[in-house]
Structure formats: structure tokens, C-alpha cells
Design brief:
Layout lengths: L15 E2 L5 E2 L14 E5 L5 E6 H10 L3 E6 L6 E5 L1 H20 L3 E6 L5 H16 L3 E7 L8 H14 L4 E10 L2 E8 L6 H4 L5 H13 L1
């Protein structure tokens, strides 16, 4: 009798085994009747550590509160389960992730373009724009545009971008070093994190300092 050749499981067929022998996706939590272990370490809805109880008792407690029994630490022995409103918890987590993505996308990238032989007056105007962008919290993509034979003197563009980086050193750091991109040379500046002002960093006067000051006034 011919036997079918042995086949190794495909990557998509490999499942994660959790306590109780049930195969579930790694990112999926087991809820209520999907939990298949005899005992759990129960955390009540208010965060109280109830302790180890029978699964049936934990499910009954969740039903009494009209909430869900959620497996939060399946790797523990026994698994840790918490009573909670799973729909509400999942919604709040999604909102937090949405806000985090929104904050990440709030950092705008402004672009400033210059020629390698820019005049000092024009450079002052352009660098003023860069300064305002950085002070507003935006990144700046500085581009030097070369035309014709100017491509044979890219060192002029590098010199100009280095000058800009030095002029903005108190406001920004070079996130992307100057590099040639087609007929342009590009550098990205990112605003520095705000630091406390020197006055804010001064230590408060101590009672001993006050006494010493009073003594000096009296002797004067």
C-alpha cells in the first residue's frame, strides 16, 4: 500500500499552542467560552486579585456583571484572566493607536530651494524661512539646484548646505546628510527637542543663602 509522502507544514499552517491545547492566532485573545482550561487566575473588573478559581466560577462571575472573561496572560500557569468590557477595551486601544499615528504624521516637512551661487541677501531670506520652519517644529528639506556645467562643481552646493547647518545648529540637527539626487543636492534638518532655558535651570535659594545675604546687609 502506497503511503502519501510526508509534507512539512506550510508557514501559514503553523499555529501557536496555548495552555489547554487550543490553537489560536498569536494576536488573538481568547474570550469567555473559548477559554478551555480548568482553572484560571482571576482578576476582577475593578482590578482586585481574586486568585485561582475554577473556570466555571470565573465565567459565572463575568456573566453576573454582564462583562467578558478575557485571557490576558495565556503563558502563565494557570492562565491569567480578567473580567472586563472587551468591546470597550478594544475600542479604546484602537483610539490610542489612531492618536499615536496622528501625532507621528503631524511633523511636516518643508522644502527650501537654493542655487549654488546664491547671493548673500537671498541666502539671508532663505535661511530666515528655514529658521521659522524649524521654530514651528517642522523638518526642512534643503535643496541645491544645479544647472548645466554647475554639476561639475557640486562642492559649492555642499559648502552652502554646511553653512546652513552651522547657522541652524542651535535649532536643528542634520537628519539626512547632504547627498546628490539627480541634478539636486539635498539635506534634511530636523528641529531639536526643546530644552529648559538657563533661568529655569537655576537652583532655588536655600534658607542658608537667605541668612547669609541678611548678615551681609546688616554688616554693611
Amino acid at each position: 500500500m502506497d503511503r502519501a509522502p510526508h509534507q512539512s507544514p506550510r508557514p501559514n499552517d503553523v499555529a501557536i499552542r496555548r495552555p489547554g491545547g487550543t490553537s489560536i492566532d498569536e494576536q488573538q485573545r481568547r474570550l469567555n467560552a473559548d477559554i478551555k482550561v480548568p482553572r484560571v487566575r482571576l482578576v476582577d473588573a475593578d482590578g482586585t486579585q481574586v486568585g485561582i478559581v475554577a473556570l466555571a466560577q470565573a465565567l459565572r462571575r463575568a456573566r453576573e456583571l454582564d462583562l467578558d472573561l478575557v485571557e490576558v496572560a495565556p503563558q502563565a500557569d494557570p492562565p491569567v484572566c480578567r473580567i472586563m468590557d472587551w468591546g470597550k477595551a478594544k475600542y479604546e486601544e484602537e483610539q490610542k493607536q489612531k492618536e499615536a499615528r496622528k501625532r507621528q504624521n503631524q511633523i511636516a516637512v518643508k522644502e527650501i530651494k537654493m542655487r549654488p551661487k546664491i547671493s548673500d541677501n537671498d541666502y539671508g531670506t532663505k535661511s530666515g524661512h528655514v529658521r521659522r520652519f524649524l521654530e514651528a517644529g517642522s523638518k526642512v528639506r534643503a535643496s541645491i539646484m544645479f544647472r548645466g556645467r554647475e554639476m561639475t562643481h557640486t562642492e559649492l552646493g555642499l559648502r552652502l548646505l554646511d553653512r546652513l547647518a552651522d547657522d541652524m545648529a542651535e535649532l536643528a540637527t542634520v537628519e539626512a546628510a547632504p547627498k546628490v539626487d539627480g541634478r539636486n543636492m539635498v539635506m534634511v534638518l530636523a528641529p531639536l527637542k526643546t530644552k529648559p532655558k538657563p533661568d529655569e535651570a537655576k537652583p532655588e535659594a536655600t534658607p542658608d543663602d537667605a541668612d547669609a545675604s541678611s548678615s551681609q546687609d546688616a554688616s554693611a
